[in-house]
Amino acid sequence: MLRLEGITHAYAAGASRQAILHDVSLSIPAGQSCAIVGASGSGKSTLLNLMGLLDAPTAGRVLLAGVDMTRAGSDECARVRNRSIGFVFQSFHLLPRLDALDNVALPLLYRGLSRPAARQAALAQLAKVGLEERTWYLPADLSGGQRQRVAIARALVGEPALLLADEPTGNLDGQTAQDTIDLLLSLNREQGATLILVTHDHGIANRMERRIEVCDGRIREAHG
Fold first, then answer.
1. How many domains does one find in the chain?
2. Which end of the chain is more exposed for a tag (fewer CB within 10 A), N or C?
3. How many CB atoms lie within 10 A of CB 22?
4. Domain interval for residue 97
5. What is the pLDDT of residues 64-98, one digit of tens each?
């Protein structure tokens, strides 16, 4: 599903460059659930952004479903993100003036679907996350857990092959956080989407099939 080959990533720091990731190689098969763990500033989110084609590596290759995306232009990356990748963020990133239904429908509208078709698919996805009775609610009228469920529905409405979640429980209380992980794992199993989740919570990480630790810009398989 996803392969990184010799990935190095650096950013400008004054007259020099500061490396964040060093020669990272990683292969994640289709349908796997994988946690990325590590200390703050270790490069976890940078790694996820490279996987999601939100950024390009300084060196190395990113292959998605066997296709080298490293030198793809911004339009092509945007097209692949819209059709193949779903994103869930800690801060939800819902549009405040749109109700739950239209927030979820938005990726399909960008894809060119008609509004009725996009809304019908969004309604079905909201039902899968248990929010069919909150269809017309604005984000401000939803709890944190409900907003995250809307964000998950939006990420999955386009039936992506790859689901990337960056600290999706960071703004949620303990039980709501566990409920959110339950939902992500059930959707991973039922829809077959590859799930890659950045988290600082080792309890959550241990629920994934696999754990990758990022330390000083390098990765290793985490066990135990």
1. 1
2. C
3. 16
4. 29-57+73-221
5. 888 889 888 888 988 888 888 888 887 788 999 99
